[in-house]
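Structure first, sequence second, as always.
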């Protein structure tokens, strides 16, 4: 269980640094915007190149991915239905809400938990690749279309994800992994150094927003926040467990890996996307906070029941 506490404690400390810097007026909301843009346009694409180039991309074709995908589809689908028929959210806000309810922290939290709790960091690779290559490009394409006020031509819709820096970084990493090519050190070393800025930039920016932004739930619907958090922490792992255990027949440690990765909290980069496009930023911020705290007892319970 030490890996769970270590992963969450590391994130909490770095977020706390952002809160402290904002409280001491060392930085302001403009600095938060700069850090978010740095993470979105520069550091995160570099991180994706390095991370995915070392991943076992063949694992994305495993049957386990079916269960993971089912949890994502059920969670995002339920939120979208509620956003459309109950809260009447716009396209951009609904997209951020759906991502908040289904996009897990597979990188800076999923990797250490997979390493220390599950015993193998590669177990998070299917979820990471699903999000990087399918869910994130799709969400960013919708956000781009919403920001422009129109979807554009079919060609523009199809090519828009490939004009996004995060998608390009992810695809470059996958190409390297599939081909076995290795970047020369003159390129890999700077990319690695830049990529190392991604997670700290996201977390510090998130801490600044916590301190200087609206209070928890004050700028949005408390019911909506409770819904996104509940969907993420309860519905998504429950659907993944049902599909894996009863429809696919996964057992033992493999089943635990699927359910634990589905129960990870909402990823910090959803807040970066929300900030970048100016959509549902408070909902994304608060869902990340609640699910990050709530995931600790949920993952401990899952490890005790299925481990």
């Amino acid at each position: 269980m030490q890996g769970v506490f270590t992963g969450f404690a590391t994130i909490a400390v770095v977020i706390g640094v952002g809160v402290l810097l904002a409280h001491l007026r060392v930085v302001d909301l403009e600095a938060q915007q700069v850090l978010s843009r740095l993470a979105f346009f520069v550091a995160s694409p570099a991180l994706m190149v390095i991370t995915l180039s070392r991943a076992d991309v063949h694992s994305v074709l495993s049957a386990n991915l079916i269960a993971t995908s089912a949890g994502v589809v059920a969670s995002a689908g339920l939120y979208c239905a509620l956003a459309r028929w109950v809260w009447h959210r716009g396209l951009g806000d609904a997209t951020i809400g759906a991502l908040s309810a289904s996009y897990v922290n597979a990188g800076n939290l999923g990797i250490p938990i997979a390493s220390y709790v599950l015993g193998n960091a590669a177990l998070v690779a299917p979820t990471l690749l699903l999000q990087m290559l399918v869910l994130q490009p799709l969400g960013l394409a919708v956000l781009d279309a919403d920001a422009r006020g129109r979807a554009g031509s079919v060609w523009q819709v199809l090519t828009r994800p490939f004009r996004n820096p995060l998608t390009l970084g992810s695809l470059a990493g996958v190409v390297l992994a599939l081909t076995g090519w290795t970047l020369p050190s003159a390129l890999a070393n700077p990319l690695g150094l830049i990529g190392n800025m991604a997670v700290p930039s996201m977390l510090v920016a998130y801490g600044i927003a916590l301190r200087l932004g609206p209070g928890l739930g004050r700028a949005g619907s408390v019911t909506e926040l409770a819904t996104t958090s509940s969907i993420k922490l309860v519905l998504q792992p429950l659907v993944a467990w049902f599909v894996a255990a009863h429809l696919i027949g996964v057992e033992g440690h493999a089943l635990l890996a699927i359910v634990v990765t589905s129960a990870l909290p909402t990823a910090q980069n959803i807040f970066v996307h929300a900030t970048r496009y100016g959509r549902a930023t408070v909902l994304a911020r608060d869902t990340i906070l609640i699910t990050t705290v709530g995931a600790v007892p949920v993952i401990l319970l899952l490890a005790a029941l299925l481990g």
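Margin note: The chain has one domain: 2-180+195-306.
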